[in-house]
Prior knowledge:
Elements: E1 5-12, E2 15-27, E3 31-37, E4 44-45, E5 50-51, E6 56-62, E7 67-73, E8 79-87, E9 91-92, E10 98-110, E11 116-119, H1 121-126, H2 129-132, H3 134-153
Parallel strand pairs: 1-10
Antiparallel strand pairs: 1-2, 2-3, 3-6, 4-5, 6-7, 7-8, 8-10, 9-10, 10-11
Amino acid sequence: MSAPSIEVRLVKAGATKIRYPADLLADDGTHVTVRALWAAPGVRDFGFVRFEPGDVFTEHYWRDRWYSVKEVRTGDGVLKGWYCDITRPAEPAEGGGLSVEDLDLDLWVSADGKEILRLDEDEFEESGLRERDPKAAAEAVRALDELEQRARDGSLTQLLDR
């Protein structure tokens, strides 16, 4: 029996950035796990990792945390690493899907755990979130700091264990 499919909707600055289908692997009411193929067209080369057609993302969302964590593997199962998005807590979307608001900050952790990169801090500062919603901005920075600490102490993957 195959997993039920849901739609994941990523919102940024009030507009839908991308929507994509994902297989719902688990939902305990707080922690939602889905699996999806790379949804953007073509290859996205960040310099430290390439996301490309065939890559498989096992994505972890929480309804009570300000981040999501995506384990990224090649189509044949080789671990590339973990891409962490700083977001508002996940919310239900129409049709039983999941909606997540991206807050610009990101963290990349390489498969061997040796490369830990804080990303898009300039975009976060330019977004104006600190002025518009200081509480959300503080939560976003706290979430990024927490994930970076977990990556450095080796406990990031413990978040993903069910």
